[in-house]
Design goal:
This protein is mainly α and 576 residues long. The chain has one domain. Helices cover 65% and strands 2% of the residues. The strands form 2 sheets. A two-stranded antiparallel ribbon has the order 1-2. Strands 3-4 form a two-stranded antiparallel ribbon. Strand 1 and strand 2 form a beta hairpin.
Amino acid sequence: MTTAGWLQLIGMVAVLAVTIPLLGGYMAKVYGGGVHGGSRAPGDRFFGAIERPIYRFCGIDPEGEQRWTVYAYSLIAFSLVSVLVLYAQLRLQGHLPGNPGHVGAMGPAQSFNTAVSFLTNTNWQSYSGETGVSQLTQMAGLAFHNFVSAAAGAAVAVALIRGLTRARRGTLGSFWVDLVRTCTRILLPLALVASIVLVSQGVEQNLNGPRSVATVDAGAQTLVGGPVASQEAIKEGGQNGGGFFNANSAHPYENPNPITNFFEIWLILAIPFSLTVTYGKLVGDRRQGWVLLSAMVVLWLTMTLIIMPVEARGSPKLGAAGANQQTTSLQSGGNMEGKETRFGPVGCGLFASATTGTSTGAVNCAHDSLTPIGGAIPLVNIMFGEVSPGGTGSGLYGMLVFALLAVFIAGLMVGRTPEYLGKKIQAGEMKLVVLYILFVPLVVLGFSAAAILLESATHSLANSGPHGLTEMVYAYASSANNNGSAFAGLNANTNWFNTTLALCMLVGRFFLMIPVLGIAGSLARKQPVPASAGTFPTGTPLFTGLLLGVVIIVVGLTFFPVVALGPVVEHLVGHF
């Protein structure tokens, strides 16, 4: 890997090291102060003036508390109404204003898939953004869900933290208050600043319709205008993914230069990593947050240090054919297939590791064109459940579920009832943990197997053999883990894929959130027990290692066979 590549990675780690404690501390004050914490939160006077009218208009009691079941019902009710509104908007967009490109209605199956996709923070797109969706739908439909879907994930994570810290309480706070405060105090300010930064670097932001321009060869080309920077800011900052353009973050109007590429990678990683600091502050033991952060960083950094050099090394087949893949003053070298020349294979590798380690799913290169080992990294990142560092809230509560499993295993080894933060982890919590772990593999492997056996489904694949299997499994893994990135090489705009992928998204979102809220409600009702000589400490490097081992073993036992049949076999046979 080149010196520039190492500097890019070191620079990213350094910027994250500075910003994670600051952002994490701010979010701890947002969730720990004000309505539910008793103390004032930053910007209460300013943000309160925005939030109070929202509470009055929606009939929300800002001091109200909900049991975990009511919290879950609120989440589901809000999601149901949201998905119906977006579905109607997609079906009727041809008759609505804000449509300078005269985009027609989206088909029923594709509208269902798209509505579910943005509802669940997946943002899988089986359409071309610039021609399939009107500007009104982009702003009032898709961008709206980019905010609220990320906020919903953060709300569930905060509810779980309250469950761990409260004693003999039947409530977890208010879903509606957590949703509003996340949007107004975290996501909107971050998106506003990010939009300004992106516009300053040349990212498009206007309300222009398509216009035809003359090209240098006396031809014509249609250029599409639109509110791109504002969509890009929350797309990356809320770990949503998708894109205003079909080329996603590889498009020069979304990601024009290395500065925006670096900034967008930081946006992708900032909130998920910072939430571990928030967690440590809210539970009153910063070491607990550092343990989760360390585990996330080790997973993300390990994957990044594999994919970046692998892509920079290039393809042996091309080298054998006489292609020059060396880095020179005229070319970046390495595996340039499917890469943007302004980013190169190293920039692609760093972006791919970040976007699949989180639930973002944005791409700045074609993952289908990665080398087999390079392509295995995004796939495995997603299969980890995106806990390295995961999405807004979802990465934190996913890692906490693994932490509960780790202390349960440790308790079995020493013959003692496991405890986490003084709460005994018993059969009720472990049943919910098992459900959390099993739901996603069930739909990923089940639907992948069914699709491979269906001739009509395999016709959607651009490749056969191990690479075709990877394309198929990647689509279902990306959907079920709410990532949304595509390996490409798959025509997903069919009734089969629009329906089954949408079902995977729903399972991966709500069949995981509800068990997490159930765990939170169970833990909130328990009385903490004081630590004793037999208590297994969870704020130590030893527990960090145990936590990493549990994540790797659980995912390995579940998905290693299909990974072995896909990218591993492709690498061994050398067909790349």
